[in-house]
Design goal:
The complex is a heterotrimer of chains A (308), B (317) and C (289).
Chain A lengths: L22 H13 L1 H9 L2 H14 L1 H7 L10 H32 L3 H5 L5 H19 L1 H14 L3 H5 L1 H28 L2 H26 L9 H13 L32 H22 L9
Chain B lengths: L2 H4 L2 E10 L2 E11 L2 E6 L6 H8 L7 E6 L7 H7 E4 L11 H12 L3 H14 L15 H14 L4 E5 L7 H16 L3 E6 L2 H4 L5 E6 L2 E6 L1 H7 L5 E7 L2 H8 L5 E6 L5 E6 L2 H15 L3 E6 L4 H9 L7
Parallel strand pairs in B: 3-7, 3-8, 5-6, 6-7
Antiparallel strand pairs in B: 1-2, 1-4, 8-9, 10-12, 10-13, 11-12
Helix pairs in contact in B: 4-5, 4-6, 5-6
Chain C lengths: L5 H9 L1 H20 L6 H20 L8 H38 L3 H5 L5 H33 L2 H9 L3 H29 L4 H13 L5 H4 L3 H6 L13 H4 L7 H23 L11
Helix pairs in contact in C: 2-6, 3-4, 3-6, 4-6, 4-8, 6-8, 6-13, 8-13
The chains are: A mainly alpha (308), B alpha/beta (317), C mainly alpha (289).
The structure holds adenosine-5'-triphosphate (ATP) and magnesium ion.
């Protein structure tokens, strides 16, 4: 009969709560990101346009400062358009940041077969994605809608009565920012899970927006429509959805110098192609996000059967 | 280049740093034809030495020449060198045969010559049957052998093998060992790295012991043994009265340690001066009439030299 | 056993040129085998043949093309070529193909096989470059050729006249030539970037910016961009206004031969840099990713 000395004891001390466990990934990924000095510098630099906007807002309400600087009249009108423009600038910075940081979150894990290690812990695939997305959400929120909301607060504080008429802009800023953040972080995670190679994933992210836009313009030009924009995520979000959110005029679609002019019988005037309707833009965005989720679902698995 | 260097592998004061990490430091080596084993624990710099020899990495300091050729001239070097690396990776979706043929085509061999050499090599590692299958579907041992086949396929005179026995079953292991030994006897330079000493010491003409980036000993196994004379040496004495022997030898200051065997009929002595000890033993036999069954050095294999020098247990199999 | 190969070794060492040719052929063949028809490369086909699909839809939509004008479609094709193919399609496609040639092998950890062959490393650069250029030229050349054919095919007899009895054939030749030059120019630069930089994407993106906006820099500096030479070669000038004008406008005319020569010299300089760098390149897979 074998006699075992029972010296081994499993850990039975306290544990962190299950629901917040995924934040471990977020925390450590953030540490790793900020270990890179260029990245930290980039984050700091992306606050500069915000500071400038803040100064603009201040100047437009302070006749005193304007006289000191010898500027004539109010320089700029602070209206929904202004906030959209500020958010748009931050949106592009956020895109650069995503292209930089996003692929590094997932691609190395997959390339080095680290996923089985994560998933062999009490840690689900959804929590993994949540943990990694959390990094992007925190970072991107911190340079997009959060500071723009602060600017909104500044403006509301400086101009009496303005808030009452414009309070809805807060919701627009939040929704517009979150929409953009969600789309680009999902895209970057899905692409990097798919190609498993960080730098290629970055290039792909650029390609999706730039080549997409070029392709869209080509389609619009050749076929004289605006349908091509359905392939142009940047236009759909910035040019169709955002204007609706900020209640400004929709960007003219098909403003394309190469568009073939339709040849009509004399006396008839050619109509410019209609802009993409909101519901179509929303649908394309939803479909794009769904495809990303599908890709993540396909790729983020603890084991994989290798073909060949 | 002197005539000697023409058929040797020479390291002259070679150092390699990976940034701040030390790969190897101040290596001076002279390897002649035959089987040479590079032995050291993980991370000691064996792969680094081999990569330096084959030009995959460049030394931070010093010069290397392989049969008179500098590793920075791959067009000449690779004709005489075959290197089986420790990277277990292959081009995507190739079969074993294509893998070797593609490589031989890069040498400039024509079609028939390529096929002939490839089949030769495949036969030598007994992979002819599996050669038509994709490498992605090979087992670890098969992958190891197909890489070996590639390294010998162009008939090099220097064969460098990084842990070539990894992942091989006992039969394939024995076959590979026999192959290396035969190649060494034919006058090739065969350089093998391993941490499993027990395996390589039997076929090695020379060993190089390496630890934390430094060469700690090199030469024929017995030479290495004398070279490290200042290190304590172990001698096993089997006799009827080990206790008495112990009491006598302990008076000597060259004896560092004496350990009774469990069965009470033997004693293991560690001494810094073996010659002194042997003459003492002679005196004890002659003057005291002590009964001695056997006297044997307990460590005349690489394994124990390794223990002295590297200060950790060599793995015994 | 080292005697067995000596017969073969003899001719190999006595005729270096023949050997080099043989080795380059072997590299090209292997690269094409491993990279040409892969699922991984599907998106490059999309880039190359996307416009073909669009022109095909157009041709089907307006059969016989009663309402359109030949001049207008000619300039439409010119615009597509300059703004889509030159600027994005070929740029990103070539980036994908050439970045993969060396970096892909590092990622797959197979570059050491090439480095352990008795091969001058310069030949490796040249062989890979040729394979990549061949791949890119065939793909994008076919895309341009098919698009061009579709544009004039749907004009039926008028289109046939324009191509075979008018300026069409010459324009097509120039388009194909420019495509090939673009593949060579961008390809050489990307190949070099992937050898020099660990992560060539950031310099690659910087290059996209440079190629796009170099038009506003002094002419001396513009000569360092591929698009500078390509702009001078387009057979039909695309209509342009606004920000797009920057991409197509020709600041100061340069003779065709000078533009071609300049571009080839730029490519050669880039490749020379790559050759110089690869001689000292070390295999180090661990620090990737
Ligand atoms: N590319 C690299 N970058 C940084 N350090 C490296 C690199 N390659 C090796 N080293 C370091 O150099 C030292 C020697 O490594 P090497 O691979 O030569 O050891 P080894 O003897 O082959 O070990 P093993 O038995 O595990 O294969 C180690 O400390 C290692 O960490
Ligand atoms: Mg090793």
């Amino acid at each position: 009969m074998a006699v075992y000395k029972r010296t081994y004891r499993r850990y039975d001390g306290p544990l962190t709560p299950q629901w917040s466990r995924f934040l471990v990934l977020t925390r450590y990924s953030l540490y790793t990101l900020f270990d890179s000095r260029p990245f930290t510098a980039f984050v700091v630099l992306s606050a500069i346009p915000l500071l400038l906007s803040g100064v603009l807002i201040y100047l437009s309400h302070s006749p005193m400062a304007r006289t000191l600087l010898q500027l004539p009249g109010p320089i700029i009108k602070i209206d929904p358009k202004f906030f959209r423009q500020v958010l748009l600038n931050q949106g592009w910075l956020a895109f650069l940041m995503t292209a930089w940081a996003g692929p590094g979150l997932v691609a190395p894990d997959l390339a080095n077969q680290a996923l089985p290690l994560y998933l062999s812990r009490p840690f689900s695939r959804a929590e993994y994605v949540l943990g990694k997305m959390g990094v992007l959400f925190l970072l991107l929120s911190a340079i997009t809608w959060l500071p723009v909301l602060l600017l909104f607060g500044l403006q509301a504080g400086l101009e009496a009565g303005w808030f009452k008429e414009n309070y809805w802009i807060m919701g627009s800023i939040f929704l517009a920012g979150m929409l953009w953040i969600s789309v680009i972080s999902l895209l970057s995670l899905a692409i990097s899970a798919w190609v498993r190679w960080r730098m290629v994933a970055s290039a792909f992210l650029f390609g999706i927006f730039f080549v997409g836009a070029a392709f869209a313009n080509m389609i619009n030009g050749i076929l004289n429509t605006s349908w091509g924009h359905l392939l142009n995520l940047g236009h759909l979000i910035f040019g169709v959805i955002w204007p609706k959110l900020f209640r400004v005029a929709v960007d003219a679609a098909g403003a394309n110098p190469h568009a073939r002019r339709p040849h009509l019988p004399p006396g008839m005037v050619a109509l410019a192609p209609l802009p993409i309707p909101l519901w179509q833009a929303c649908m394309v965005v939803v479909v794009a996000c769904a495809v990303c989720l599908l890709l993540l679902n396909r790729r983020l698995r603890a084991r994989e059967v290798v073909r060949g | 280049m002197s005539g000697q260097a023409q058929n040797r592998i020479v390291f002259e004061n070679v150092s390699k740093f990976y940034g701040e990490v030390l790969g190897v430091n101040r290596v001076n080596l002279l390897l002649s034809a035959g089987v040479t084993s590079l032995v050291g624990p993980n991370g000691s710099g064996k792969t680094t030495l081999m990569n330096l020899m084959t030009g995959l990495i460049r030394p931070t300091n010093g010069a290397i020449s392989v049969l008179g050729i500098a590793p920075s001239e791959p067009e000449k070097l690779a004709r005489v060198v075959g290197y089986c690396t420790q990277f277990d990776s292959f081009p995507p979706s190739v079969t074993g045969r294509e893998f070797i043929q593609d490589w031989l085509r890069l040498h400039g061999f024509n079609h028939q010559e390529t096929s002939r050499l490839a089949e030769d090599a495949l036969a030598r590692v007994e992979l002819t049957e599996a050669a038509g299958r994709k490498i992605a579907g090979y087992s670890k041992g098969m992958r190891q052998r197909i890489r070996l086949a590639q390294a010998i396929s162009h008939h090099p005179t220097v064969l460098i093998l990084d842990e070539p026995l990894n992942g091989l079953d006992p039969k394939a292991r024995a076959a590979s060992m026999a192959l290396f030994e035969a190649l060494g006897k034919e006058g090739m330079h065969v350089v093998i790295s391993s941490h499993i000493l027990h395996e390589v010491d039997r076929i090695s003409d020379e060993v190089v012991l390496i630890s934390s980036g430094y060469i700690v000993a090199e030469g024929k196994i017995p030479d290495v043994r004398t070279e490290v004379k200042e290190h304590p040496m172990q001698i096993l004495v089997r006799c009827s009265q080990p206790g008495m022997l112990a009491s006598r030898v302990f008076a000597q200051n060259h004896v560092v340690e004496a350990k009774l065997q469990n069965d009470g009929r033997g004693i293991l002595i560690r001494t810094t001066n073996a010659d002194e000890f042997y003459s003492l033993l002679n005196r004890l036999i002659v003057e005291d009439g002590m009964q001695i069954e056997t006297v044997a050095p307990a460590d005349d294999d690489v394994n124990s030299v390794y223990q002295y020098l590297i200060g950790s247990d060599g793995e015994r199999i | 056993m080292n005697q067995a190969g000596t017969g073969a070794h003899m001719w190999i060492t006595s005729q270096p040129w023949r050997l080099w040719g043989h080795q380059i052929m072997a590299i090209v063949r292997q690269e094409l085998k491993h990279n040409f028809f892969t699922r991984r490369g599907t998106w490059i086909y999309l880039l190359a043949f996307g416009p073909v699909v669009v022109f095909a839809i157009d041709a089907i939509q307006t059969p016989g093309c009663a309402p359109c004008s030949l001049d207008e479609d000619t300039s439409l094709f010119a615009a597509t070529f300059q703004l889509y193919y030159m600027r994005f399609g070929i740029f990103f496609g070539v980036m994908g193909i050439f970045a993969w040639l060396f970096r892909g092998q590092v990622v797959q950890r197979t570059l050491h096989y090439a480095f352990l062959a008795p091969l001058r490393r310069e030949l490796l650069v040249i062989g890979k470059f040729l394979a990549g250029a061949l791949m890119a030229i065939v793909l994008f050349g076919a895309g341009v050729l098919l698009s061009f054919s579709l544009v004039y095919w749907h004009f039926a007899a008028r289109g046939y006249d324009y191509v075979f009895h008018g300026p069409g054939l010459h324009q097509l030749a120039v388009y194909l030539g420019v495509t090939a030059l673009a593949c060579i120019g961008y390809g050489a630069i990307f190949l070099t970037l992937t050898i020099i930089f660990k992560n060539p994407i950031i310099p690659g993106i910087a290059m996209l910016g440079w190629e796009t906006f170099s038009g506003i820099f002094p002419a001396m500096l513009q000569r360092l961009s591929v698009s500078f030479y390509l702009k001078h070669l387009s057979p039909v000038s695309a209509p342009s206004d606004g920000i797009l004008a920057l991409l197509t406008v020709v600041t100061e005319p340069v003779a065709v031969w000078a533009a071609v020569l300049g571009l080839l010299l730029l490519a050669a300089a880039a490749l020379a840099l790559a050759c110089a760098r690869i001689r000292t390149l070390e295999i180090s897979y661990s620090s990737e990713q």
